[in-house]
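Progress note, project year one: complex with coenzyme A.
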Amino acid sequence: MTIGISDIAFATAYQVLDLQQLADAQGIDVGKYYIGIGQSEMSVPFPDEDIVTMGADAAAQIIARHGADGIRTLLFATESGIDQSKSAGVFVHGLLGMGERCRVVELKQACYSATAALQFALGIVARDASEKVLVIASDVARYALDTSGEPTQGAAAVAFLVTADPALLEIEPVTGLHTDDIHDFWRPNYLSTALVDGKYSLAAYLGALEGAWGEYRSRGGAAFADIARFCYHQPFTKMAVKAHDRLCKVAGAELDKEQRLAQIAASLQMNRRTGNSYTASIYVGLLSLLERDEADLAGERIGFFSYGSGSVSEFFTGVVRPGYRELLRTARDAATLDDRVAIAHARYRALHEAVDAVQGSDYETAAETPGPYRFAGVVDHVRRYETRG
Ligand code: COA
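Model obtained:
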């Protein structure tokens, strides 16, 4: 039996800040962002958007195509949880009117947990081939204003359906793991913004890649030459470029710069515009690769490196199924990015500060998002969500 991903859908926040705006406000050359870290824009949530509205937006596309019948597990992966106890997935389950016979849980390990969700989903389907598992990865990446992490914020969600005999991508069984108790990026309970030791996190990421790749190979994983494309966790797209250069070196692959870039370039395009989406970013990368790579990837093997600071990481592979292109929502996803409302630096800054101002009190949000679901506010400490009419 083969198991893997049968469908995958994308959502992001409905506002966008061009990093030119940030560079201008900071009085620096935008080349640092456009070229140096490889980011051109970041998605910025309206006040009535969050991980639930984005997650529901992505998952609704899957449910519209496949129905909710037979989905007995919903795994919600996030670093930017909205409740310390209740899974964000239960809010989505309610918004989408899914059936009662469903287990729903939230998973956390920085940017890695969507990959844990994928692996757990594969196990559930391996045990009973009739099971379908809906995985949602949704995050709003937030750093404090005026810190070096500020240009690497963003927001997006990806939902994917894990089934037997998958239509899109068969996930292969061999994986390589690497865990290390470090503090490269983390977010204490009392902060709404992440803390990061930027340069250390880059080095930790690359070290984890070597560790996970080493274990992958020692467990019988495919040779580098048998992997056509690579998809990395992308806190900023330049990180994936650095990672792939490192992997080529470690694997002894003699490729020039252009050849190395060709193996990852399509996977960077959407993240370049959403900004960091933590758990979702590697799967935004997968979608970007499938939708934007000009080559026919049917039958080709993709290598994935999933990294979550703290840190847990995993290298694994998948093989693209024939007919994958017909299943993609390529035009819709491009329009989702193009149609975001462009905002100026002052509004971005005001929205960033407002998140901390409303903590702990009841409030209503103005109806602003053009998206299908909205966060309506908090009453008696309960978050209220609505389907937009
Ligand atoms: N034109 C082109 N490139 C430029 C430039 C310009 N005008 N100005 C600077 N650059 C380049 C630098 O040379 C550097 O490239 P390099 O890394 O290849 O050497 C890059 O832009 C970044 O510049 P740097 O001075 O290192 O930026 P910084 O000190 O502000 O830090 C990060 C950058 C990425 C470390 C910081 O944004 C950060 O901490 N982000 C969060 C990291 C994260 O998400 N970690 C979790 C990992 S999973």
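Residues 224 and 253 are 7 Å apart (CA to CA).
The chain has two domains: 3-168+328-387, 170-323.
No further modelling is planned for this target in the current period.
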